[in-house]
Design a protein that fits this description.
252 residues, seven-stranded parallel β-sheet, 8 helices, 7 strands, binds 1,4-dihydronicotinamide adenine dinucleotide, Rossmann fold, alpha/beta
């Protein structure tokens, strides 16, 4: 591993880092030498994880509780982030989905998805970049979605939030460019995680795989590899971009 690929001596924050794509990103950062702060929603589960030497990777991962659907929990978390002495990497990964047609989608559901998928990443990036700007270096990666580029019936709230996140990435990149902070988005296609298994049946997953030019769903590690490049010192000139990692699905 070159010095630019290594995260030795760096601190990285990954929201929603306890499972799925977030957990794969945490694992990849740990292997590359970073100290990682990973958030989870359930304070009790977070307490247990912090006592587990396997989960903490012998002290390399610290779990923080944060529920972005609850303003007080989010505010506590943001204050902790702003209080960090150093932070080189921030990955806004936490996200939720509700698949319901526009006629049936409630305002409360729309609001919840907006809160978790768009408002929280803005506030987290704002807090993180204040710490990064002090050192004149930082990398923010927002996990968006193919539904941040295209759409499908039943995804009004999710698509709006992810399109918003891609747009937000561009403005953050512009606002933070003078501070040495590069901001990009990674947009996963269909990835095998709990979120996918909860929202799709086995038949739906097989039918989706058949629609992907590469003929299969992605593994979370395939997202983590792209995130790692964008979050590393090796990335010196990509900012404000959205890298779509979807096996070719969105180009057909
Ligand atoms: P997942 O459901 O396995 O994990 C989501 C993570 O977000 C969990 O760690 C969870 O604790 C956290 N989270 C959920 N609600 C939260 C809240 N209110 N406050 C704080 N944290 C919260 O999901 P998965 O599949 O790993 O997705 C990760 C990201 O990738 C999400 O932003 C998702 O929208 C995006 N994505 C996933 C795709 C897939 O096929 N799995 C495809 C495209 C995008």
């Amino acid at each position: 591993m070159s010095a630019e690929q290594s995260f030795q001596g760096q601190t990285a924050l990954v929201t929603g880092g306890t499972r799925g794509i977030g957990a794969a990103i945490v694992q990849a950062l740990v292997q590359a030498g970073a100290q990682v702060i990973a958030t989870g929603r359930d304070p009790e589960a977070v307490r247990r994880l912090n006592q587990d030497p396997v989960a903490t990777q012998e002290g390399q991962v610290a779990y923080w509780a944060a529920d972005f659907a609850h303003p007080a929990s989010l505010a506590d978390f943001l204050a902790k982030v702003e209080g960090l002495e150093r932070l080189e990497v921030c990955v806004n990964n936490a996200g939720i989905n509700v698949i319901r047609s526009t006629n049936e989608l409630s305002e409360a559901e729309f609001e919840l998805i907006d809160r978790v998928n768009l408002r929280a990443p803005f506030l987290v990036a704002q807090a993180a970049s204040r710490v990064m700007a002090r050192a004149g270096y930082g990398r923010v990666v927002n996990i968006a979605s193919i539904w941040g580029v295209i759409s499908k019936p039943g995804r009004a709230a999710y698509t709006a939030s992810k399109h918003g996140l891609v747009g937000l990435t561009k403005t953050l990149a512009l606002d933070l460019a003078p501070t040495g902070v590069l901001v990009n988005a990674v947009s996963p296609g269909f990835t095998l995680t709990e979120l996918t298994r909860d929202s799709l049946s086995a038949e739906e997953m097989a039918s989706l795989a058949a629609q992907v030019p590469l003929g299969r769903l992605a593994q979370p590690e395939e997202m983590a590899r792209v995130v790692l490049f964008l979050a590393s010192r090796e990335n010196t000139y990509i900012t404000g971009q959205n890298i779509v990692v979807d096996g070719g699905f969105s180009i057909v």
